[in-house]
Amino acid sequence: GTGSDGDSEELVLTPAQLIRSLEQAWLNEKFAPELLESKPEIIECVVEQLDHMEANLKRAKKGDLKVSVHRMEIERIRYVLSSYLRCRLVKIEKFFPHVLEKEKSRAEGEPSVLSPEEFAFAKEYMANTETYLKNVALKHMPPNLQKVALLKSVPKPNLDSFVFLRVLERQENILVEPETDEQREYTIDLEEGSQHLIRYKTIAPLVASGAVQLI
């Protein structure tokens, strides 16, 4: 293509690149304190890729050494995929009112944090939790406070927590907040390939853009 339709173009990945993007998404999700943008197109492609690999295995000769290697690779990809999705569900359960709030308030054309399935899951989880709390804990509170109580009673993701990262693309003038009150904030350059321990919210946009990889 000529590159005029940028969006659809970047999803034409080789199988190796596809698995690498899944692994990157998985590691970022595992180590980020908040729920990251959902990647439904990667999931979809990986599932197709797995089906394709399974079909190829069925056609292979029994006892072929390559078969056991491919079988291991399929198991590994399945593991990463299910671990990634489970990791996201755990965060949705942990932060559900905040996640839904964020989803409601996102601008048109802004990427969603939830896949349609996750959105349905979060809404149902919220409804069940509200029902449970109403029956057990909130029934003595006025209705207008019950809604507030839910948002307040569920912890927000801690964006101030520290994360390890590897820099994939060099970044200049990243604003870092000081650990102590004496110094004013200062900027640093992140060299490609370097590793750092940094407060998550400082580099959250770089995780989203793929410039850094959480490790």
Automatic annotation (TrEMBL):
Pfam family, one: Sld5
CDD domains recorded: GINS_A_Sld5, GINS_B_Sld5
DNA replication complex GINS protein SLD5 C-terminal domain residues: 157-215
GO process terms (BP): DNA-templated DNA replication; double-strand break repair via break-induced replication
Main location: nucleus
InterPro entries the UniProt entry points to: GINS_A (IPR021151), GINS_bundle-like_dom_sf (IPR036224), GINS_Sld5 (IPR008591), SLD5_C (IPR031633), Sld5_GINS_A (IPR038749)
Superkingdom of the organism of origin: Eukaryota
Record keywords, A-Z: Chromosome, DNA replication, Nucleus
Coiled-coil boundaries: none
Segments crossing the lipid bilayer: none
Span of domain GINS subunit: 65-136
Gene Ontology CC terms: GINS complex
Family annotation (SUPFAM superfamilies): GINS helical bundle-like, PriA/YqbF domain
Cellular compartments annotated: Chromosome; Nucleus
Family membership noted in the UniProt record: Belongs to the GINS4/SLD5 family.
The protein's name: DNA replication complex GINS protein SLD5
Species per Swiss-Prot/TrEMBL record: Penelope pileata
Originating gene: Gins4
